[in-house]
Structure formats: C-alpha cells, structure tokens
Amino acid sequence: MAKKNPAAIFLILFAILAVVVGLSKVMLSVFDTQAMIMAFVPKHPVADEVMPPAPDYTKAEAWAALPNESEQVNIEPLQEEKDLIANLKKLQALQETIKEIYSDYEPIENTSTKDGATAVISIDAAGHLRGISNPLHDVFFIHPTTYMKPTQWNAAFDDASAKPMLESIALKNMAVAFDGYLHAPRYRQATTGAFYDQSGQGEIAKQRAYQDILAAYDNFMERRDTNRPFTLVGHSQGALHLLNLLKDRVTGSKERSHLIAAYVIGWPVSIEEDLDAIDMKACENENEVGCVISWMSFAVGADTTDLKTWYDASIGLSGKPRAASTMLCTNPLNWVIGGDADAGLNKGSVVLTPGDTPLPEPVANLTGATCKDGFLFVSPNLGPEWQVMDLGGGNLHFYDINLYWTNIWSNTLTREATWVTTN
Questions:
Q1: Which residues contact 422 (CB under 8 A, 6 or more apart)?
Q2: Alpha-carbon Rg of the chain, whole angstroms?
Q3: What single-letter DSSP state applies at residue 97?
Q4: How far apart are CA 278 and CA 270, in angstroms?
Q5: Contact at 8 Å (CB) between 214 and 249?
Q6: How many C-beta atoms lie closer than 10 Å to residue 358's C-beta?
Q7: Most buried of 23, 65, 149, 227, CB within 10 angstroms?
C-alpha cells in the first residue's frame, strides 16, 4: 500500500464528512494515496479548465456570512467599556467575566448563523451557551475545503454541493468559536484532489483559489469599521491561504496595528522560515496581540513521521526549505508555545455537530494537550463520539477547533480585551 500524502491528509477529512452527513451509515476504509488520486484528482489538465466566474465581494452572495449593517452601528467601545474590560481581566472565572462584560447587551436566540451573521456565543446564568449581539471586533474566517468533486480543479464559489458542509460544519462548529462580527468569504476553492495531486497542477488550483482570498480581504478592509480591531482565522486549506495572506497583505500594512491575532489552524507553520521571514511573531501567552497562533491535533501515539518528512521538504515564506526549522505549536489550553496542559485547563469541548441540531453544551476537562516536535497530542483517548471523523492513525485534524472550543472562545475575548484597553 502506498503511503499517504501528508499535505493531502488534511483535506480528506472533509471528503469523509460529506459522506457521513449524507448517509446514515457508511464504511470508508480506503486511505491509500493512489486510491485517493483516482477518486478525487481531476483527470483533465488544469490549464484546460475554464475558471468559474469570480465572486463579486461587493455583493452579499459572495459571502457565506456577513454581519448585518444594523448590528454594527455605534459599537466602538466607550471609555467606560474599556475600563470595565480592564477590571474584568483580573477575574479568573470565565462565566462571571462574560456575564459582567456583556451585562448591558441584549441576548439573541441561537448559537448558529442567522441571516448571514454569526450568533456570537456567551454563557447564561444557568451555564448554557447563548448568543450576544455586540462583540467589539471583526473576524475574517477562511473556511476549509468543502468541495471534493473530481470534475473541477476549482469549484464555483457558490457550488451547491459545497454549501451544506460550509454552513453546518465550517461556520456552525468552527467560525462561531471566534467571538466577533463574522466575515466569511465564499471562494473558488481548490478541490480535495488538488492536495493529492503530484503533478504540480494542484498547486495552480490552490493559487487560483488564493486570488479570491486576496480580493475578499481587500473588500473586508474596505467595508469594515477601520477603528475596530480584527481577528484572522483559517483552518486547513483556509489556513494555507491565511499564511500567505499574512505575507501579502498584513505585514507592513497600516491595518496591522488593529490585528488582534491570526489563528492559522490545521496547517504547519515554521517560526523561522514563515513568521520570521515576514516579521510576524508567534503568540507566547493568552493576552498577546498582533501575533500568530497555530496547532495540529493528534492522539497520543499517532505516527507523524510522514507529515514531518513533508514539512522538512516544503518551502517556507522565506523561499527556503522548512527543514530543521521550528514548527509552531501553540497549546490552546494555556496559550504557550510548546506547552503541556492537563485536562483541568480544558474549559469545554463541543462535540462536532453537523446539520440543524444546535451545538451541545461544552464538556469541561475532556482532554489535556501536549506539544511535542511541533504537533499537539491530546490525551486521554477520546470516546466514540470523537472518533467518527478520526482520519485513522490518530489524526484529529477535523477536531482542531471543537476539542478546545470554549478555550478558543474565551481567548478571543481575552485578546480583544487586551487590544481595547491598550489602544
């Protein structure tokens, strides 16, 4: 059996999900690279493909989520709010902190997307997840691959087959963990097969997709309130595009001073050959702003040899191989680089929940996490509800966000508070 392509291993998870969501019961056991090439890589040359029409980001249909204009009126924090947040940062109990910060805001009904806007999550007096209406920052979220057909190298930005996974997984489960006014562009994403391709054509498809992300980000900067800070988030294919976006748009820009943090999740990042090369810093604690966060999740005992081999051979933003450089691993339970944290620091994991079912309550203390050699290993072993989308071999890529959902949500508020009180 041929070895798995480590870069492609990230994307097959979402192909599996499409089957799981569409069928009540399925058995999928073939992960052989050659089988994946046959199943997912387009047979025609990428040069022969006519690109679908480009999204017009001045129009709402080009976005998977946008905040309602009425929600964004007069939300620049007052000095009293800044003072309040500064005082509340001293509190250690997350529930009490959130209740105090947002005591004057009107709650909304649900925890999923509604009318194109994210329902930002809070905790009510009973400890249940609820939404709040007025966060203080914007979120630019680049979604992972949700298109896996081999008929196109690049999907239409509004492809119907990619929509269910985008809305019920990427937005509902992932994006809402990053508390803020959500801007999530649709884009002509590279198909799953582009990450298995070994001919170089997949790289062209990824670059085509990235051009849409550049256009979407430029429009995001034009439409947002420039006085408000923002957070950048990408997962899997979205993280790859975000890493390049940091180089091409963020570094050296006047907007950089308003960056709360960039969460580049589920894709390898080199401290020396990526971040140092573009004058970006890795976040070293839970309060730091203007920096980069990254991790990739695996079960204890998982074999990461192939992925490390791929990382060593890959080229960083510096133009040099990443071999011998430090792979960034931020521990999302304590927000230090290369850290170890026990399950007592896990504020709440949220089981991956596709479809229309509301997100369940977080489960605290589910698992600890340890960074080792650039990879994040979780322990103890997870229950069956957390193994449905295990890629096999302990690769927990699909759960990169849900495993640490409440810690991520809390951290976005903490960093938001730091930015507001220091600017």
A1: 289
A2: 20
A3: H
A4: 11
A5: yes
A6: 11
A7: 65
- Evaluate if pTM is beyond 0.90: no
Q: How far apart are CA 89 and CA 27, in angstroms?
A: 48
Helices 79-88/94-101 angle, 10° precision: 170
Name the token pair of 4: 């798995």
How many angstroms separate the CA atoms of 121 and 129, rounded? 6
Yes or no: say if 420 and 81 are a contact pair by the CB < 8 Å rule.
Answer: yes
Amino acid in position 128: H
Please give the single-letter amino acid code of residue 231. T
Question: With contact defined as beta carbons under 8 Å apart, do 407 and 333 qualify?
Answer: yes
The answer to whether residues 299 and 348 touch, using CB atoms and an 8 Å cutoff, is no
Please state whether beta strands 181-185 and 63-65 pair in parallel, antiparallel, or not at all (unpaired): antiparallel
β-sheet bridge partners, residue 141: 233
Please report, in tens digits, the pLDDT of each residue of the chain (423 residues total). 444 554 454 444 444 443 433 332 232 333 456 777 778 888 889 999 999 999 999 999 999 999 874 344 333 444 444 444 444 444 434 445 545 555 543 433 333 333 333 434 443 333 333 344 467 899 999 999 999 888 999 999 999 999 988 988 899 999 999 988 999 999 999 998 888 878 899 999 999 999 999 999 999 999 988 889 999 999 999 999 999 999 999 999 999 999 999 999 999 999 999 999 999 999 999 999 999 999 999 999 888 988 898 899 999 999 999 999 999 999 999 999 998 999 999 999 998 888 888 888 899 999 999 999 999 999 877 877 766 666 567 889 889 999 999 999 999 989 999 998 898
